[in-house]
Design a protein that fits this description.
This protein has twelve helices and 14 strands. It has about 350 residues and is an alpha/beta fold. It has two domains: about 210 residues, Isopropylmalate Dehydrogenase; about 140 residues, Isopropylmalate Dehydrogenase (3-Layer(aba) Sandwich), CATH 3.40.718.10. The longest helix is centred in the N-terminal third of the chain and has 17 residues. The structure holds 3-isopropylmalic acid and magnesium ion. The site of magnesium ion has 2 residues, from helix 9.
């Protein structure tokens, strides 16, 4: 029997709508080709959600996200709303979804397509063949730790504070995700921490080391985050799976994206314990290019492929999307972010058209 997928589409702000449109077209075409049945439901989120109903994550949007089998997410962020209290800012939508849905495991693959080796700011020989999987813990750490705030001291000076905190159980569950992912890849895990300074990450290192003993077939190494940031630029191909906390993972995954030529190429999956997931490009809402048909839709299209693979187990359909993206890149089509000499400069919609054509 054909699987039926119920997908919530939360396009969000800035370039969110134009890039999710292209990924939706890809899903619709696969459905039309008989790969699966499809129900898509859209809902406002981020700045758009705030404008529609006074909250970046409206109740109805959260309810839809909970009832769907998976979520395709665009981007949130709107500078004009940055003066709102933090709990009403667009970014709270994605943080709220991650927390409410228990999406603790964030998979951010950074691999380079041969065509784009020259698009990276690093030398082609440093990045060609790169294939890293960054696994970022997504519902803990300083992002969610309490207490936090800005308080006024007795002398009238203001003081900002946040709490970095990890429970053993949180470290263990993300650790399992990393070791299991490594088993399907290069069998190496590098756990990134700052155990030389921070207690939280000393515990992180101890727990990872302990857990590593149940995966004798996987080689575990540890690296301080500052060194990891440097090694990613110096010799990125040394990494297979990188596992780290929420804050460090946020930073290192942006850094890793530029190894691949453009942040416009990197998809991500945020999974719960049952592999239900939210899928989104790792880039933001890019308000400066929104509505101009300039954004690269490939990260979102590749996120849809990850959805098919991780939540629905539709390997063949996922492979078809990834192959179509590769074909499109090698045909020389390029949005401005990945433009190289000799390429054909195209827009968001034309890139989507090309991927659809390559899937026929
Ligand atoms: C990301 C983003 C988010 C984060 C923002 C939008 C809250 O940078 O997904 O990496 O910090 O996690
Ligand atoms: Mg980020």
């Amino acid at each position: 029997m054909t699987q039926h997928l119920k997908i919530a589409v939360l396009a969000g702000d800035g370039i969110g709508p134009e890039i999710t449109d292209q990924a939706v077209r890809v899903l619709q075409q696969l459905s039309a080709q008989g790969h699966f049945g499809l129900t898509l439901e859209q809902a406002p989120v981020g700045g758009v959600g705030y404008r529609a109903s006074g909250h970046p994550l409206p109740q109805a949007t959260l309810a839809l996200a909970k009832s769907a089998d998976a979520i395709l997410f665009g981007a949130v962020g709107d500078f004009s709303l940055d003066t709102l209290p933090r709990e009403l800012r667009p970014e709270q939508a994605i943080l709220g979804l991650r927390k409410e849905l228990g999406l603790f495991a964030n998979l951010r693959p950074a691999m380079i397509y041969p065509e784009l080796a020259g698009a990276s700011t690093l030398k082609p020989e440093v990045v060609s063949g790169l294939d890293i999987m960054i696994i970022r813990e997504l519902t803990g750490d300083i992002y969610f730790g309490q207490p936090r705030g800005i308080r006024v001291l007795e002398n009238g000076e203001r003081e900002g504070f946040d709490t970095m905190v990890y429970r053993e159980s949180e470290i263990v569950r993300i650790g399992h995700v990393a070791f299991q992912a490594a088993r399907k890849r290069g069998k190496r895990v590098c756990s990134v921490d700052k155990a030389n300074v921070l207690e939280t990450t000393q515990l992180w290192r101890e727990v990872m080391t302990e857990l590593g003993k149940s995966y004798p077939d996987v080689a575990l190494t540890h690296m301080y985050v500052d060194n990891a940031a440097m090694q990613l630029l110096k010799a990125p191909k040394q990494f297979d799976v990188v596992v780290t906390g929420n804050m460090f993972g946020d930073i290192l995954s942006d850094e890793a994206s530029m190894l691949t030529g453009s942040i416009g190429m990197l998809p991500s999956a945020s999974l719960d314990a049952k592999n239900k997931g939210l899928y989104e490009p790792i880039h933001g809402s890019a308000p400066d290019i929104a509505g101009k048909n300039l954004a690269n839709p490939l990260a979102t299209i590749l996120s849809a492929a990850m959805m098919l693979r991780y939540t629905f187990g539709l390997t063949q359909a996922a492979d078809a999307v990834e192959a179509a993206v590769r074909k499109t890149l090698s045909s020389g089509m390029a949005t401005p972010d990945i433009y190289r000499d000799g390429c054909q400069r195209v827009g968001t919609v034309e890139m989507g058209d090309a991927v659809l054509a390559a899937m026929n």
